[in-house]
């Protein structure tokens, strides 16, 4: 029987595994952790909404057939020339590989960013951000160092803006707990581009700006960070801001293992794939999600999103099955569902299937998309298991 290996159990890899399981096709799945985390929602627990445990699901609760093998391990190298993946648990060989290792941070060469900024990219990093901010408020009680109360979020894309919305809602609770006056707390978003949320139209961007400003977020667009030192950012304007919390959400690139393995990559290190999501270099390797350089019908590379990763995961699974059955391959076309940005628990902005939405309805739709995703992964069983948890505030 053909050996199918999936590397990475994020949105792309796990969807692929679920589809293969539905078809009764055994596979091996390797992932850093024995759980899958909801990356698109990590700003919520980072900013104090709900308990952290609610943002992950054990892989064994999703993939329940014993014919497949789950390996908790780290991929350390790729050898597509030999049909092998190198891992900290030894080599894994395959006939078909689905590469779904997600992304790595893009620092745009800003000196000191990698060394001194925190990232919001995994369940662990979200927890670190949360614990760090709370620790800063606690320490302020002892030393009255006001740089502990200044939080800088670099980047005003979806991740940075959603994080600011959550942090802003958390601040009053922290101020009350640690007896900090509101005027001492600063939450600053720095963005080099002229606007926040570039994927949304101007009306929605303005609405988001209004909401966040009202919640106390200082939005500074057209403000490039040129250097980061320990507890300090330097701006292009020459201004220097001291802050003990610096979080970078400014961009992503593909996992560096891909370029190192000899795949043809774009400037963001993503492997080039054809319309069936096969690597153009190795046709038995499917590359999906943030790792894939897929050019859409408009000739532009598809931006890295959870919805693209999920849809690619399903198509890659179908195509592996089709190759084995000698059937023609499915062509990948993104079914763009829209973009929703939450700005805290009860308000958001976005467009869904071409319809603009803002306020409570956008927040409710975002909430609904969580349930839809759980349904796709594990049907009613998983929805029931997680639903109570996802809707409760901490
Ligand atoms: C806070 C935040 C909010 C977001 N909001 C949205 C949104 O609203 N809508 C949207 O569409 N997108 C959103 N995104 C983007 C979206 O999360 C990503 O595009 C998506 O997760 C990519 O899916 P993927 O399967 O390619 O990778 P991931 O989901 O990142 O999965 C990669 C998996 O591979 C594992 N892995 C990585 N390296 C290794 C290794 N060496 N060995 C073993 N395992 C490894 C990881 O642990 C992970 O399980 C958001 C991202 C963030 C951070």
TrEMBL record:
Record has Acyltransferase as a keyword: no
PANTHER family noted in UniProt: 64 KDA MITOCHONDRIAL NADH DEHYDROGENASE (EUROFUNG), APOPTOSIS-INDUCING FACTOR 1
Residue stretches making up the FAD/NAD(P)-binding domain: 3-313
Family named by the database record: Belongs to the NADH dehydrogenase family.
Cofactor dependence: FAD
Protein's name according to its UniProt entry: NAD(P)/FAD-dependent oxidoreductase
InterPro entries xref list: FAD/NAD-bd_sf, FAD/NAD-binding_dom, NADH-Q_oxidoreductase
Pfam families on file: Pyr_redox_2
Residues making up the signal peptide according to the UniProt record: none
Keywords: FAD, Flavoprotein, Oxidoreductase
């Amino acid at each position: 029987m053909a050996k199918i290996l999936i590397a990475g159990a994020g949105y792309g890899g796990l969807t692929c595994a679920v589809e293969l399981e539905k078809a009764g096709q055994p596979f091996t799945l390797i992932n850093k952790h024995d759980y899958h985390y909801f990356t698109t929602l990590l700003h919520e627990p980072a900013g104090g909404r709900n308990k952290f445990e609610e943002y992950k699901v054990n892989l064994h609760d999703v993939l329940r057939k014993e014919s497949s093998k789950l390996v908790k391990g780290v991929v350390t190298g790729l050898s597509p020339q030999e049909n092998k993946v190198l891992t900290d648990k030894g080599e894994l060989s395959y006939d078909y590989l689905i590469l779904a290792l997600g992304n790595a941070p893009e620092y745009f060469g800003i000196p000191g960013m990698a060394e001194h900024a925190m990232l919001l990219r995994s369940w662990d990093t979200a927890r670190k951000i949360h614990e760090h901010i709370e620790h800063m408020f606690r320490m302020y009680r002892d030393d009255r160092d006001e740089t502990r109360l200044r939080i800088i979020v670099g980047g005003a894309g979806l991740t940075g803006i959603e994080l600011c919305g959550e942090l802003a809602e958390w601040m009053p609770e922290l101020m009350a707990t640690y007896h900090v006056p509101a005027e001492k707390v600063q939450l600053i978003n720095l963005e080099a581009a002229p606007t926040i949320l570039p994927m949304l139209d101007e009306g929605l961007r303005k609405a988001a700006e209004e909401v966040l400003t009202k919640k106390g977020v200082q939005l500074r667009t057209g403000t490039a960070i040129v250097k980061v030192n320990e507890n300090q950012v330097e701006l292009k304007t020459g201004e220097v801001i001291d802050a003990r919390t610096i979080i970078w959400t400014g961009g992503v690139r593909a996992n560096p293992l891909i370029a190192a393995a000899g795949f043809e990559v774009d400037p963001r290190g993503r492997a080039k794939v054809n319309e069936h999501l096969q690597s153009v270099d190795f046709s038995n390797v499917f590359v999906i999600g943030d790792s894939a350089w897929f050019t859409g019908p408009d000739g532009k590379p598809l931006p890295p999103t959870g919805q693209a990763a999920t849809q690619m995961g399903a198509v890659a699974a179908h195509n592996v099955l089709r190759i084995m059955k000698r059937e023609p391959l499915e062509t990948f076309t993104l079914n763009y569902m829209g973009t929703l940005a939450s700005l805290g628990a009860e308000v958001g902005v976005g467009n869904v299937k071409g319809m603009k939405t803002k306020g409570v309805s956008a927040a409710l739709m975002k909430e609904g998309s969580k349930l839809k995703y759980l349904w796709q992964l594990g049907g009613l069983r998983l929805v029931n298991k997680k639903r109570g948890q996802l809707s409760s505030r901490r």
